[in-house]
Design brief:
Helices cover 71% and strands 2% of the residues. It is mainly α and 306 residues long. Helix 3 packs antiparallel against helix 11 and helix 9 packs across helix 11. The longest helix is centred in the N-terminal third of the chain and has 68 residues. The chain is elongated, with a radius of gyration of 36 Å. Its main location: membrane. Keywords: Membrane, Transmembrane, Transmembrane helix. It is a multi-pass membrane protein.
């Protein structure tokens, strides 16, 4: 009897059946794992979309508050706060538009809107960073001496940046600023606040009183009362403010460099506050951008898997 080394048909059939079943099991396991992975990605997608909708809802509410603040500044100050209200209105409007685009894009899962949202956030971040940097440079101290005390009339325009000096030396700009900040009533009321020259000499004057209502101390003018000075000729100093000052309540030192220095001081403080607000909003938008980027990445992964 001759032995055959080749397996019988029965053995081959059983082996083929087992191999087929094993392959089917592996294939089924692969499909299950793939579906689980897709479900995980879909859950991540939904979570990211919900988060970005929520964040943009908050941003939309904040933008409405910012716009309301800008409108309030315009209406309540006779457009005197235009330099502050304008950037506030622009920032609030831009944030509102971006928030709406991001919200709709996340709600409808529209990739084009999410791309536009990401791009606009990048542009806004760049613009805010540039504006903040410009604000700090423009409001930086100039080469002159820093103010030490209000009573000593130490507010000087040359103590501030060249940009602020050019802004306030422009006739139209200065007339607008003067009408907003400098009121003759401030100078008129000094006669009731200070009864005699000694009180005036030792008093701590407000910036406007010191820089716009009284002559610079370097002129050497002696006060007869709080609103009237003995204008000796020539003054002790050759500074042009000594020649500009007049006792007339309608003139006073409203066009002096010392008065412009006071306004520069106010503008510097206000613009620094805007810069701080920009830094806070910049940080918040960084978070928004990160969420938008993660959402877009998950959306792309979902499309590749499917």
């Amino acid at each position: 009897m001759r032995l055959s080394l080749w397996p019988s048909d029965t053995v081959l059939t059983k082996f083929y059946g087992r191999a087929t079943r094993s392959l089917n099991v592996f294939a089924a396991s692969g499909r299950i794992l793939r579906k689980k992975h897709q479900l995980v990605q879909m859950n991540k997608q939904r979570t990211s979309m919900y988060v970005i909708q929520w964040v943009n809802t908050v941003a939309l509410a904040l933008s409405i508050v910012v716009l309301g603040l800008g409108v309030f500044l315009v209406t309540q100050h006779d457009n005197c706060e235009k330099m502050i209200s304008t950037p506030i209105l622009i920032t609030g409007g831009f944030v509102m538009c971006i928030s709406l685009i991001g919200y709709v894009g996340a709600l409808r899962e529209v990739s084009l809107l999410l791309w536009a949202y990401t791009l606009l956030v990048c542009l806004l971040l760049g613009a805010m960073a540039g504006f903040t940097l410009f604000t700090y440079i423009a409001t930086h101290r100039g080469p002159g001496d820093h103010p030490k005390s209000v009573g000593a009339h130490d507010y000087k325009l040359h103590d501030y940046s060249g940009w602020l000096q050019n802004l306030l030396n422009d006739r139209d700009n200065w007339e607008h600023m003067k009408s907003c900040f400098v009121k003759p009533k401030y100078c008129e009321d000094m006669i009731f606040k200070f009864k005699n020259p000694q009180e005036l000499k030792h008093a701590t004057l407000s910036p406007l009183e010191a820089g716009c209502c009284t002559p610079p101390s370097e002129c050497g003018y002696s006060p007869k009362n709080a609103t009237f000075y003995i204008l000796q000729s020539p003054p002790l100093s050759s500074h042009k403010d000594c020649m500009i000052y007049k006792n007339n309540i309608a003139i006073k030192c409203y066009n002096c460099d010392s008065c412009k220095g006071v306004i520069a001081h106010y503008l510097r403080k206000e613009w620094r506050i805007i810069a701080l607000v920009n830094i806070v909003m910049f940080t918040m938008l960084i978070v928004l951008y990160s969420i938008a980027y993660c959402t877009r990445s998950v959306s792309l992964k979902k499309k590749v898997i499917s």
